[in-house]
Structure formats: structure tokens, C-alpha cells
Amino acid sequence: MTEIARLAAETESAVATAQTLDALEEVRLAVLGKKGWLSAALKELGALSPDDRKARAQQLNEVKDRLGAALDARKTVLADAAIDARLKAETLDMTLPLSESAEQAGRIHPVSQVIDEITEIFAAMGFNIAEGPDIEDDFHNFTALNIPPEHPARQMQDTFYLPKRGADGEQIVLRTHTSPVQVRTMRGGPPPYRIIVPGRTYRSDYDMTHTPMFHQVEGLVIDRAIHMGHLKGVLTEFCKAFFETDKVKMRFRPSYFPFTEPSAEVDINCSRDGGVLRVGEGNDWLEILGSGMVNPKVLEYCGLDPNEWQGFAFGMGIDRIAMLKYGIPDLRSFFDADLRWLKHYGFVPLDVPTLGQGVAR
Amino acid sequence: MKFTLAWLKSHLDTTASLDEIAAKLTAIGLEVEGIEDRAAIFAPFIVAEVKKAEQHPNADKLRVCEVFTGTETIQVVCGAPNARTGMKGIFAPAGSTVPGTQLLLKATTIRGVASNGMLCSEREMGLTDEHTGIIDLPLDTPLGMPMAKVFGLDDPVIEIKLTPNRGDCLGVRGIARDLAAAGLGTLKPYAVPNVKSSFKSPINVSLDFPAGVENACPVFAGRYIRGVKNGPSPAWLQQRLKAIGLRPISALVDVTNFFTYDLGRPLHVFDAAKVKGNITARLAKSGEKLLALDGKEYVLDDGITVIADEAGPEGLGGVMGGEHTGCSFDTTEVFLESAWFDPVRTATTGRKLGIHSDARHRFERIVDPAFVVSGAEVGTQMILDLCGGEASEIVLAGKAPDWKKTVTLRPTRLLGLVGFDLPVAEQTRILESLGFTVSKRGDVLSVDVPSWRPDIDGEADLVEEIARQHGFDAIPAEPLPPLRAVPAPAVSAGQRRVRMARRALAARGLTEAVTYSFIRSTEAEVFGGGQEELRLVNPISADMDTMRPSILPGLIAAAKRNMDRGQMDVALFEIGPQYASVAMDGQSIVATGLRRGASGARHWRDRSRNVDGYDAKADALAALSAAGVDTAPLMVMDGAPGWYHPGRSGTLRLGPKTILATFGELHPRVLQKLDIKGPVVAFEVWLERIPASRGKAGVRTRPALKLSELQAVERDFAFIVDAEVQAENLLKAVRGSDKALIARASVFDIFSGAGIPEGKKSLAISVRLEPQQQTLTDAEIEVVAKKIVAAAEKACGATLRA
After folding, report:
1. Is the pLDDT of residue B420 over 70?
2. Beta bridge partners of B392
3. Which residues pair with B312 in a beta bridge?
4. By CB neighbour count within 10 A (0-12 exposed, 13-18 middle, 19+ buried), where does A225 fall?
5. Is the peptide bond before A192 cis (omega within 30 degrees of 0)?
6. d(CA B359, CA B345)
7. Burial of B211 (0-12, 13-18, 19+ CB in 10 A)
């Protein structure tokens, strides 16, 4: 056995027994470091005759390759073992609960969410959102809507009054419906109009289905040839989109409102099987809104010629359809700001209703 | 409005079923609220004969009865003292539910004897309170006859909800007319009798109203009937009245109630013997009193129409008669009143006095003005039929108010307004069967409105009549003509800001509340509100009597309610209106929020702390940023309103004058007044004060982006400044010292205490330098650092910390 073979065998055994990466590195340096025996032997090649040099070089390179491979292999084993050892020490109890992120914790009120849903659907039919003040005068809230001075709706037991008078002596009221925005829109610029008006409304009433403040959405379409068929079409499309069912059946019943002529109340079909209300199923009817063709007298009050312009209007309770859609039992709880209720019936902030994704949650 | 099927059929010749009639009523706008089919409720209960009643072997007070129903014999144990062999009564079999007690009957054994049903008392059947014995029927009552038939209860009761314009349907005949026009049968002819008069009325009538208010009672017909014999009215009349929930009183009174419901024509009967002198319809004198038929005394004013004799008011015109001249079983002389009262005055009187009577209900919805004398005729005839006697001539004062109207109808308007068409002949038929008179004038119809339809004013009303009688189901559902293929945005820039701010605040963990727009005035005052003009005249309660000047008091109250339920950490916001005055511009939309308690639940990893004014500042900035405001140039200044802690609050301003937001801790005295435990921090963001974005509409391109390839450098500076120096001023000075190079400067540490002189603090600032031309050399960095230190010293007296 040559000296080189002996050293190589010693090295192989040292590699195999090295227990740490540091020990292995020492072995490597003893062989291939600047002062390693293999490096020294390779340096001596230059002094040999060309023939000897070739044979010697071949032998040394074979040894170098073999030892290099052994070192690498052992290094991989030791590195893996080091990671394994680290992993044994590095454990965390990943069952520990995390705190809720802010965007998970926050909620959007059902009324806001439903207004966004309504907006999305009517926007697709070309409607704009209009708004008006909560504190109104009796001209916009009653008179211009053809509600005569002696009408019971104007009574103190129904309408909230404020003490001051308007510039022309009008009484100041909290609007009892969103309809005064119809008047403001029609008096504010020329037709055509295609608007919806979501907003706060006020009536003196308080029980399970009535609160002194509630939300309504008004609709108004005025053009030259708008008729009740369009009203039916718009409301049918709305109900299908809002309740996300093509099965919903609608019933138009003749009714009476001073500001529309003809007037219709609209029912949708529902079932109450097992005490659970389901819209769009069954043979019961549920009233959801009042509507009709805008009364020519209202058009005249608003300065429009009823022989030229006509159209429809409707008014719907936002809280009410929110209750229907999401199965919320008591209207009063809407305005109580109970965090438990809001957490349960509210909507997460990133849940923005769009028609593309569907407006129902 | 309630009526029975048989009552309806006394005016309507129809073969339609109850269900068909109900469906049609709703379809033509006379919405059915309920149908009480008493025959169905009473179906299990039939007439049975007690074949044998014997003493119960084990109980003194019980009898064992053998009951024969006509088809079977059943054994029943009965405790009624009047149970006896040979009687006929009402038998309730086992398995039925007794209507009066709502108990389910079961076959049972009573003291060892089997009992398979019961013999019932009137109370058990829900008929009366009579419970001393079981029902004892005439012996000729047929065995097995349904109980409902025996008691005349087999006539279904229909209740409809009428819209206020349909006073004509407050009489059964009006309903029948509507149904006939809708094709559900034929309206039976109705002949108003011409009652023979045999003497002159000893009581005369007159109208005495000041000029301008003659319309209070423009026509009054009366008739004296003598020699009547009053008593209970006949069974058919009593049954009808009872079916619709009226209590039969006496024949004379029942006649007036009958016509109130039959023809929608209220009548009144005075006991003529108690009337002093003649009768006058006039306005009451203020302070006059009347004891009305409801047993209550009313104090009247001069807006109220009374029917008076020489002794004073004897009745409230159109509302209620007086007790003093009311009829009793002893009445032999009657004075019958058929008049017409102004709807508005009647309604006002009723409201003022709190009287809801059937007469008021009709007069305020307008009674047929052309049926006043006819009303007297039909009333007289029935009184003579039921009570005998003879009638005087009719005494008549005034004349019916003018009701005649002619409306022009273009038959094309049906299609134009409701979207479906009908032949002119059909339109005409519908109108004529409703009582309109139609004549053709070229292309249009001239339509005379009948006296009982004062609600018809114009063409649209006639179109509605035709459309509703034909049925709204015929209206086609048509889409709106699209304005463009992809609709334009529906929300305005301002509405978009509200929507964005709402989502942003919720994404910061705040929960959206919707609270009432009105609050308690004492709480409004704490927030600068409570002005007289914003106090409701008629609040629903004291805690909702004033329009809110700020959303905060409502949120504070909400936080308190949650704390009372054990939820101590509260984070709520609301975006809604608040009110500074009743003027249009007094209302503003403000995003308001409140945090109370700890920043989060106690947690092993995320340490919670008490909320502070910086949380509120962050919320306000988030809302503004979401609403499209570039928050970097906003000025942070003090000057928050008085409900904030003066040293721990601030304002965010766009320029020195425009306050976009206020934020901070709430003032401890405010917390005390509103009785809430702190810490409470809050913010208010005035979304409508945000100016419209200056960019041209539709231009969405962003400014060109310059990205430097060169190495950026961070340098830290620790400055010592006076304790009251505001960080913002120091940062402003630092940023301004070399605007080209300094990309960012921020505070990363604040320290006072050991090593810092008394009254001073250390502010550590990190500055990022971003060269644009070439990489900075150490010398160049040194030059900038000197500029920064110099600027800090000049602006804030800052020195570098040793």
C-alpha cells in the first residue's frame, strides 16, 4: 500500500466517524486545505517527469474525487442531522388561538348592506341615487304630494312636528316618507328622471314592527311613455335579483295613495312552513311595497305638464325587506346597537355587494 | 268593514263560491283581511236527543246520559242540573275541540263510568256567558242538525280593509256593486220605498250655521213616526248585527245600525217624547256639554256640529247621538234623522273628542249626498215593518251639496297609463256597471260620476277604475327602456365617499350602528345642541325629544347599554345625519366613531392596552383617506370642541380654517354627565366638507413615477427639545431642510426621564435620503445632516442628544 492509499484510507475512516460539521471540516482541511497532504502531493507534481506526472496525477485526482464525494455525502448527513436536532427543540403549540383581525371584527349594519344591494340592482337599470333632508316642510312632505291639510297622516299622532315655521309659514316636520325627494327632484330640473331615494323616515309609532325612525327607499321614473307595465317590470326584476330567486311571484293589488293614480300595493309569495318565512315559495302573500302612476296633481304641483310627462313611483321599507331577506325578527333591535346583534346580523366590511358576485350573502 | 256572505247575496245575485268572492274582492282593491267561516269552526257539534238521563252510581251531582244523534247512541257523563230524559241539546263528540274553552275532548272514564263526549252550555260553545246548564233546544229541532245552522251561525263573515277613498264600500251594497262590475254576478235592483205619510211632523228641523260654514250640515231630513212598539229586533237582524260584532240593542236602534252597514247610510233615532221643541243643526257653543250614547259626557267647542233642541245639544252631528233622547223599549214616538255632515269637520270632531263611531267612520269618508231623503224612506219603512206605527211627512232643511261631476276619458289612456288595452265597449261597460253614465263624444267618452263616488276627480281615476275591475294581473311586466348598454355610476362623488368611509371604518374593527336621529335634550345640550327649533313638538318619549347635534351621545348611550350587558370593550361607528338647525344646510353627514375600554381582548400574544386619542386619530385618518383625501398635507391642530379633553384631542384641517375631522379623548366632565366610565375616545369626520377632487372628470391617469436606482440612506437623529414642542413642528423643519433629498422623516422614539434634563424630552427621528443624481458620499451625507440639525434648532430649539 502506498503512502497515498494509506492516507486516503485513514481519511475515509475519519470522514465516516466525524460527528459534527466542525470535525468534518477539520478532516477536509487536513486533506484539501492549504497544508493538507493531498494539496501538498498535488503541488509536488510539477517536479516529476512528464510520464510519471501523468500517472501520478491520475492517481491523485481519483483520490481527490473519492474523498470529496465522501466528504460531501457525510456533510449532507451531518447537516440533516443538525436540522433534525434543531427541529426537536423548535416546537410551538400551534393550537394557541389568535386574536381576530380588525377586518374580521368590524361589521356593516344590515340597513347599510341592504341599501348597497338595492343600489347595485337599480344602478343596473339606470337609476341614480337621490337624497334629501330629514327635516322637511309640509309642502314637500304633504301638500305637493296631494295630501290635503285635513288628511289623518298629518295628525300629531302620526307625524313628528318641530316648533319653527318655514319662510312661507309652512310647518316643519320630520319627513314621514322619502317621497318629498320626488318633489325636490322634479322641481329641481327637467325630466326625464330615474332615481331611487334611500333614507331615514319618521313616524310616531313604536312596537315590534314599528319604530319612530325607519328606512325607506323611494323610486321615481318620469318620462314620456312610462306606464304601469314598466313599474311591474322593474319591481319584478328587483325582487328576483334582491331575493336571488326566479321563482318569486308578485301580485299587484289595486290600492289608494293620494300621490299615485292608479295605485297598487305589491305582494310577493312566501311560505310560512314550520314558522320559517321563505320568500319566493308557497302560496301565502306578503305585502312589500306601495306604488302607482304619479298622480297628475303631483306633477302639476312640481311644475310638470301631465299631458307631456308621466311615470311611476314606489316606496318600500328597507328595514322590512332586510328582515324578510335575512330572517331578522324584531325591527326595534335594528337601532339598539347591541354588539352581539350586530355581530350576528351584520356583514363583514369586505363583503361589498356587486351584481357580478351576486347581491345576497 | 265586516259583512256576511248572505248579507252580500241580498244585494248580489251570484253563484260564485266564497273563495272566488274573496279572491275577487282582493283583486279589485277591497282587500280581504279575514274570513271567519263559523260553520267550519262549529262543524263537529250537532243536535242530539237525551234518550235517557240517570243518576251516576258513584257521584251525586252527575248523570249518565244516553245521547242519540240520529245515527248513533253515545254514553256521556254530564254534570248539568238541567240534563234530563227527552231534552234536545248540542253534543260535542270525543276528538273535538270545545270552542269556548279550547279544550280537546277525549273519551274518558268519570268515576268508573265511560264518557265519550259532552253536552255543552252556551259558554262552552263560545256563544254567551251562560253556564248554569246545558243548551236546551226546542223539541222540534231536527236531530243531527249542525249547531251553526241552529244558531244562524252558518253564514261566513268576511272582513275587508278599505282604502280611505272608498266610502261607498262602507255599505254592503257598494261592495256588491263593485263585485258585479268585476263580473261576479248581478247587482240586484233596489227600490227605495215611498212611505205613505199620514200627518205633519210635530217636530220641525232647521239649519243654523254662520255664513261660510253652511257645509257643516247642508241637508237634514227628518220624520216623525208615532205609535211604534219597540223591543228586541227579529232574529235575522240580530244575527246579522252579531255576526259583524255589533250588539243588538232594540229594534229601533238596530234599524239604524243595519242601514249604516247595508247602504253605508247612518241614521239616527230620537225618542220624540224627550225632544223639546224643534230640532236645529248648528255649531256648538263653547262649553256646551253633551252626555253621549257611550255614557260619557263631552265638553264641546264651536267647531263641532250638534243636533240640538230647545234644551240644548242632543247629538253630535255625524258622530254620535245623545243619551237623553235615546230610544228605549218604552219609546212610542220616534223622530228619524237622515242628514249629511261635512267629512273634515266630522273627522276633526271625532279626533278631538276621541270618538270612533260607525257614523263618524262613514261621514268622514263621505256619505252619498244624494241619498239623504231616500235614507229617511228606507229607515221609516223598516221601522214600520218591525215596530208598527204611522209616519209623518218628511221634513227637509237645506239641500244636498253639489256632487255632480263630468270627466272626459280618452279610451287610449288605458294603454298609455297601465300598459294594456280593452275595447271601448268594455271600458264603457265597466264604468256603467259601477254607476257612471257614459256618452261618446267623438274619440272621447264623457263620463258622469255617480253621487257615491266623490273620489273620482280626473281621467287617471277612471283609468284606475277600468284597470282594477279588469284586474291588475293583465298589466304586462315590461323592462324599462335601457338608457345605455352599461349604465353610468348610480352614486355621486359624495355618496361614494360615505360608502368608502363606511367600509374602511368597519375594516378597522369598528362595528356600524344605526341610532335614532333624536335624543334626550339634556344630552343634546352637552354637545352644543338642544336649541328650541330642534325640539320635537310631539316626541314619542323624553329620551327622543331633540334632533341630535352630534352622533356621539347616541353612540355613548349605545356603549353604555353594551357595558351593562358585560361588553366592556366597545368600538362603534355610525355615518349619518346630525342637525345644527332646521334649515336645509343645517343637516350634515358625519362619520362618527367611539372606542371604549381596551384595544382588544386580553390575549397571550397581542397585549391589549387602553384605547387612547391616537386610536381615534388613526380612525379619522382612515375614514378621510378612504374618502379620497390625501392626508399627508393635512394640518394637525388643536381646537376640538368642548366635549373633547382639551389636552388630548386635535383637529385635522385642510388649511387653517376647514376642519375635516376632530378626534381625541372625551372630556372627563362629559363622561361624568353622561354617566359612562372611561377611557372613551372618539372621532367625527365631516365627509361633506371634503372638496371635490380637482382632477378633470374622467381623468384617472396618475402622475409619472420616478424610481431612483441609487442606494437610499437612513440616518437617525436624537434631538432634545422642550417638553411642549410638538413633534409635527420638528418633523416639518427636518423635512423642509432639504426637500430634494429627504424622502421621509418619522419619529421612532420619544423619551423623557433619566439622562434628559427636567422639562425636556428626547425625540428620535429617522430620516430617509433618496438621491436622484448619484450615490451619496459620506461628505454629502454629512452636509445634509448639518442642515437637518440646523433647521431643527432654528424651528424648535432642538439640540442633538449627546
Report:
1. yes
2. B199
3. B309
4. exposed
5. yes
6. 13
7. exposed
Quick check: B676 contacting A, CB < 8 Å?
no
Q: How many CB atoms lie within 10 A of CB A270?
A: 21
Most A CBs within 10 A among B498, B514, B574, B581, hence the mutation to make, goes to B514
- Are residues B516 and A213, on separate chains, in Cβ contact within 8 Å? yes
Three cell numbers written together for B799: 439640540
Respond yes or no on whether the N-terminal peptide bond of residue B679 is cis (omega within 30° of 0): yes
Over residues B174-181, mean pLDDT: 96
Task: Tell me the chain A residues in contact with residue B579 when contact means C-beta distances shorter than 8 Å.
Answer: 134-135
**Percent of chain B residues topping a pLDDT of 90:** 78
Contact between B351 and A155 using a beta-carbon 8 Å cutoff: yes
Residues of A in contact with B547 (CB under 8 A): 135, 162
**How many angstroms separate the Cα of B616 from the Cα of each of A123, B524, B636, B656, B669?**
35, 22, 13, 21, 19
State the DSSP code for B598. B
Of B26, B478, B537, the CB nearest to A229: B478
- CB spacing of B518 vs A212 below 8 angstroms: yes
Q: Would you give the distance in Å from CA A115 to the centre of its chain?
A: 13
Span of A107-121, B5-19, B113-127, B549-563 with lowest mean pLDDT: B113-127
Task: Give CA–CA dist B291/B289, Å, rounded.
Answer: 7
Region B352-375 average pLDDT: 95
**pLDDT the model gives residue B698:** 59
Q: Can you read off the three cell numbers belonging to residue B800?
A: 442633538
User: Virtual CA dihedral for B370, B376, B377, B378, nearest 10 degrees?
Assistant: 90
DSSP state letters, B619-669: HHHHHHHHTT---TT-EEE----TTEEEEEEEEEEETTTEEEEEEEEEPHH
pLDDT digits (tens, 9 = 90+) for A141-177: 999 999 988 887 888 778 999 998 888 888 999 999 9
CA–CA separation, B238 vs B240, rounded Å? Answer: 6
B613-650 core/surface letters (b: 16 or more CB in 10 A; e: else): bebbbebbbbbbbbbbbebeebebeeebbebbbeebbb
- Residue bearing cell 319612530: A212
Taking the CA of residue A106 and the nearest CA in chain B, the distance in Å comes to 4
**B407-418 pLDDT per residue, tens:** 999 999 999 999
Q: Over the stretch B737-754, which tens digit does the pLDDT of each residue have?
A: 999 899 999 999 999 988
B671-727 tens-digit pLDDT: 999 999 989 999 999 999 998 876 555 567 888 888 888 889 999 999 999 999 999
* Contact with chain A for residue B667, Cβ under 8 A: no
Residue of A nearest to B493 (CA): A129
Report the distance separating Cα B520 and Cα B591, nearest Å. 21
Q: Which residue has the cell 390575549?
A: B603
Considering only CB atoms, B490 lies closest to which of A109, A119, A335, namely: A119
pTM listed for this prediction: 0.87
- Residue found by looking up cell 312640481 in the block: A302
B307 contact A CB<8A: no
Give the contacts of B479 (CB within 8 A, at least 6 positions apart).
Answer: A125, A230, A233, A234, A237
Q: What is the mean pLDDT of residues B75-85?
A: 88
A31-77 residue pLDDT tens: 988 888 888 888 888 888 888 888 888 888 998 999 999 999 999 99
B417 at the A interface (CB within 8 A)? yes
The ipTM (two decimal places) reads: 0.89
Q: Answer whether A281's CB lies under 8 Å from A271's CB.
A: yes
Q: Which residue has the cell 379619522?
A: B620
